[in-house]
Amino acid sequence: MAESSIALVLFGTFLALLLLGAPITVSLGVSALASFIYLEENPIKMVQIAFTSVGSFPLMALPAFILAGALMEAAGISKRLVNLAESFAGPFTGGMAAATVLACMFFGAISGSGPATTAAVGMLMIPAMANRGYDRGYAAAVTASAGGLGIVIPPSIPMVIFGISAIGLTVPPEAIEKFGTFQTVSISKLFIAGFLPAMVISGCLLTLNYFRCKKAGYMGTSDGWSVGQIKAAFKTGFWSILAPLVILGGIYSGFFTPTESAIVAIFYTLVVGWFIHKELKWKDLVHSLETTTWLSGRVLLILFTATVFGRILVENQIPAIVAESMLSLTQNTYLIWTMIIAFLLFVGMFMETLAAIMILTPVLLPVTYSLGIDPIHFGVVLICCLSIGFATPPLGENLFVASGISDTALEDITSKTLPFAGAMVVAVFVIAFIPEITLYLPRLFGY
Questions:
Q1: Measured at the alpha carbon of residue 131, what is the angle toward residues 125 and 136, in degrees to the nearest 5?
Q2: CA 298 to chain centre
Q3: What's the gap between Cα 103 and its chain centre?
Q4: pLDDT tens across 225-272, in order?
Q5: Is the pLDDT of residue 432 over 90?
């Protein structure tokens, strides 16, 4: 009964504040404080938990990856990746839209952020598609949908947050026997596990795009593929293509950790931007630092309060109660996955991604442990589900970004985005029901 009462105080206060329009950070912090007062604990404990939450070494990757993404856009790396993707469009039906999906994959391997990927690619590809006769609403919808790949393609900021959120969670004895004793989920393993799921989602988007463009009459160029144009795009984009290869190759070869790779990405971008492309200016560097400061501060505030919120959940055995409740309904893995995916899709429509990961990981991970689901597999499915939330109302950050770039009504973009969201949901179920899609590469590389 004590657990149910504290859950009522915690979630009741949280939901009430959200309904009143309070920011997510305020809602998390005040509900956690109300729970401490209800439990008659010293509120200073809340400050101590929040302070220690930023003492994690992997968390250093967060501002570094944000800065690397901002610098790469300023250094002209993202522009060259988009031009390379566009050169492959050629006579392919819906080729420009397909190139947009590919460009989002390329830039997602750098930025680790959905809205950043949408903004960087959309600023170049939406006008280009409009000039080729595409409806601006459709162009914006493709970009907003594919922008969600930014958090699935490694390196990914939400993957770092998921790894941190799994620290200290209670692992059932049967799970220890299967997965071994560990206190954290390997972020390097998460990174490599995200590749094939991202390919599955991209494949679903490209397939749907082909049929929708064929119906709408969005054809490719009549001249066919230009080998010269592709060679020129490769030549000018060589250092841009090399960026994700250097970063990810260094991680998987063991030269540096994911956290160190973020620092490598920054220095690589500075060298390319200043000495090779010669497009990076001091004002761009200052602007990138300002962007990093603002975004990092916003994320860390959520992290502070979400960590306290999650600690209260764990200390009061609420995740264990949720796990027992779900398992009492059914122990069929596919039904459990269906319930989890449906719940995550709903949450992703209303809650900011990083806050959702911090709150839900302590609640849902024990359920998957009990079913013998690999935590890496669960983490990738969680992030894939939440990536769809970037392109679904009412929160839909990518929708707002694409609407601003394309100067198109949000309602028009949303109606054209929903079929893509449906295709991504199908992809998520495939990824969840076939674990090998996620776990094949980590096993191949000996993780």
A1: 65
A2: 16
A3: 16
A4: 677 777 887 888 888 878 777 877 777 677 877 777 778 888 988 998
A5: yes
- Furthest-apart CA atoms within the chain: distance in Å: 74
Average pLDDT score over the chain: 81
pLDDT tens track for 195-217? 999 999 999 999 999 999 999 88
| Amino acid identity, position 179 | F
Cα distance between residue 208 and residue 239, in whole Å: 32
Is-cis flag, bond preceding 394, omega within 30? yes
CB burial of 289-309 (b: ≥16 within 10 Å; e: otherwise) equals: eebbeebbeebbbbbbbbbbb
Compute the distance between CA of residue 235 and CA of residue 306 in angstroms, rounded to an integer.
Answer: 45
Place of tokens 């593929």: 225
- The CA distance from 203 to 428, in Å, is 12
What CA–CA distance (Å, rounded) separates 137 from 129? Answer: 10
293's CB contacts (< 8 A; 6+ apart) are none
CA distance 289 to 54: 20
Question: At what angle are helices 397-406 and 136-147 packed, to 10 degrees?
Answer: 150
Decide if 416 contacts 196 (C-beta within 8 A): no
Burial of residue 284 (number of CB atoms within 10 Å: 0-12, 13-18, 19+): middle
Q: How many CA atoms does the CB half-sphere of 398 hold within 13 Å?
A: 38
Which one has a higher pLDDT value, 52 or 383? Answer: 383
Distance, CA of 398 to CA of 349 (rounded, Å) = 12
The pLDDT, as a whole number, for residue 71 is 83
Q: What are phi and psi of 151, to 5 degrees?
A: -100, -5
Contact (CB, 8 A) for 394 and 350: yes
Which residues are CB-contacts of 290 (< 8 A; sequence separation ≥ 6)? Answer: none
User: C-alpha distances in angstroms, 10 versus 4, 34, 167, 344, 431?
Assistant: 10, 7, 21, 20, 33
- Whose tokens are 């009412």? That residue is 394
DSSP state of 277: S
Domain boundaries, the chain: 53-444
> For residue 172, is the peptide bond before it cis, meaning its omega torsion is within 30 degrees of 0?
no
d(CA 380, CA 151): 10
Collapsing DSSP states into helix, strand and coil, what is residue 169? coil
- The pLDDT of residue 182 is 43
Q: Are 140 and 126 in contact (CB under 8 A)?
A: yes
- pTM listed for this prediction: 0.78
Distance of CA 447 to the CA centre of its chain: 22
Tell me the pLDDT tens digit for each residue of 153-173. Answer: 887 888 888 988 876 555 555
